[in-house]
Write a structure and sequence with these properties.
- The protein is of the alpha+beta class and 159 residues long.
- The chain is 32% helix and 41% strand.
- The chain contains three helices and eight strands.
- The chain has a four-stranded antiparallel beta sheet with strand order 1-2-3-4. Strands 7-6-5-8 form a four-stranded mixed beta sheet, covered by helices on one side.
- A hairpin with a 2-residue loop joins strand 3 and strand 4.
- Helix 1 runs antiparallel to helix 2.
- The longest helix is centred in the first third of the chain and has 20 residues.
């Protein structure tokens, strides 16, 4: 059975937070007499934040799954129900996210990210399947998915 996996991008805030936690561990070990349980807890949290990923798996029979993985190894898989798409669209989009937690709010109230997006459209509903910064990657994946599902691709980046 043929399928495609679409790995989701991790927010930059999560990457920064995980690196900060992991960098704090040697400081706590060398500077303070921190309990081993505290160090191990911080190590686990930092590694999980750094290594987790979420992916969507789309199969030929449109039996779809959401994968939760750590360093590429799936630890949990959940079935997701999506409407079979009328068409697949590739286009440029801008996403805004609030910066309301921690010190990140000092950088501004919103973060704006531009991306090339693959969305599955069914009537007036859509599902965002994949985001990337590279047009070629998005178009290639959309074409492969279109062939897998036998669905029309609409490239809206040229309009």
């Amino acid at each position: 059975m043929k399928s495609m996996l679409f790995k989701q991008t991790k927010p930059i805030k999560v990457k920064v937070l995980s690196v900060l936690i992991l960098c704090l561990i040697p400081y706590l070990v060398l500077r303070y007499d921190s309990p081993i349980s505290q160090i191990m807890t911080m190590l686990v949290i930092g590694v999980v934040l750094l290594g987790y990923s979420v992916s969507y798996e789309i199969k030929k029979g449109f039996d779809n799954y959401k994968h939760f993985a750590i360093f590429g190894v799936t630890i949990w898989k959940q079935r997701i129900v999506l409407d079979f798409p009328d068409y697949i669209s590739v286009f440029s989009a801008s996403f805004k996210q609030d910066n309301e937690w921690g010190t990140v709010s000092a950088l501004g109230t919103q973060a704006k990210n531009d991306a090339i997006v693959i969305r599955l459209f069914h009537e007036s509903k859509y599902f965002t399947l994949f985001k990337t910064n590279t047009y070629e990657i998005a178009l290639t994946k959309a074409k492969e998915l279109g062939e897998l599902l036998n669905v029309e691709i609409h490239d809206a980046t040229k309009e």
